[in-house]
Amino acid sequence: MVRTLSHEAREKMLEAAAGVVREVGVAGFTVDEVARRSGVAKTTIYRHFPDPKQMLVASLDRVLVPPPVPDTGSLSGDLLAYLTSVRPLFVSDQLRTLFFEIYAAAMRDPELREMQRALIAGRAGPTMAIYENARARGELAPDIDYPTLVENVQGPLISRSMSRPSALTDAGIAAMADRMLVALTSR
Questions:
Q1: Which residue from 2, 41, 45, 79 has the highest number of Cβ atoms inside 10 Å of its Cβ?
Q2: Is the dihedral of CA 145, 146, 148, 153 positive or negative?
Q3: DSSP letters of 68-130?
Q4: How confident is the model at residue 100 (pLDDT cuts 50, 70, 90)?
Q5: Whether 15 contacts 92, CB under 8 Å
Q6: 92-98 contacts: CB < 8 A, separation 24 or more?
Q7: How many Cβ atoms from other residues are within 10 Å of residue 74's Cβ?
Q8: Closest Cα partner for 140 from 98, 180, 172?
Q9: DSSP letter assigned to residue 28
């Protein structure tokens, strides 16, 4: 007889896993610590997640909450809304470190890289909506495709978060959105 996997146990382990990854990052993440914190037996954890990397990615999915899809009616408004919604990720030392740690770990581990790509792809909705809405409104320069939009939005945000996260204030975000708007509309 096949045993049903407990939803309650899964929730406990994922909540504990999210706490572990927030506190110790990707490198310090262990099934032993998740089991200790959740009170869920390791055998149960492995029934839910045969590969600990799957549980790591599932916990990251809880920690790195996807931003809302902006639709303000203008590219300028959408950029500002998006940047404002992701600012907490980039100003929090803990979340910013975790975000970059995921990329570093994925570069060393091909299996984790595929899971990380799927995690990131699942969060492309906001930037894809910005692109599609701006394209439909005729706001983008003709040579701007989706990857170029992502580079112009994510690049400055990531760079600023690494060099001067304290500059990601309301005024700093507004100025960044203005620079992005110029880059995406003038050609």
A1: 79
A2: positive
A3: PPP--SSHHHHHHHHHHHHHHHHH-HHHHHHHHHHHHHHHH-HHHHHHHHHHHHTT-HHHHHH
A4: confident
A5: no
A6: 93/165, 94/22, 95/63, 95/64, 96/161, 96/162, 96/165, 97/25, 98/21, 98/22, 98/25, 98/26, 98/60, 98/63, 98/64
A7: 16
A8: 180
A9: T
* C-beta neighbour count of 32 within 10 angstroms: 11
| Separation CA 173–CA 26 (nearest Å) | 29
Tens of pLDDT along 121-131? 878 899 999 99
Tokens for 137, please give them.
């409104």
C-beta of residue 38 within 8 angstroms of C-beta of residue 19: no
pLDDT digits (tens, 9 = 90+) for 138-179: 999 999 999 999 999 999 999 998 899 889 999 999 999 999
Cβ burial of 70 (10 Å; 0-12, 13-18, 19+) is: buried
Which burial class, exposed, middle or buried, applies to 138 when counting CB atoms under 10 A from its CB (0-12, 13-18, 19+)? exposed
Spatial distance between the Cα atoms of 109 and 104, rounded to a whole number of angstroms: 9
Q: Rounded to 5 degrees, what are φ and ψ at 125?
A: -50, -50
The letter for the amino acid at 114 is E
CA distance 154 to 150: 6
Q: Is the pTM of this model over 0.85?
A: no
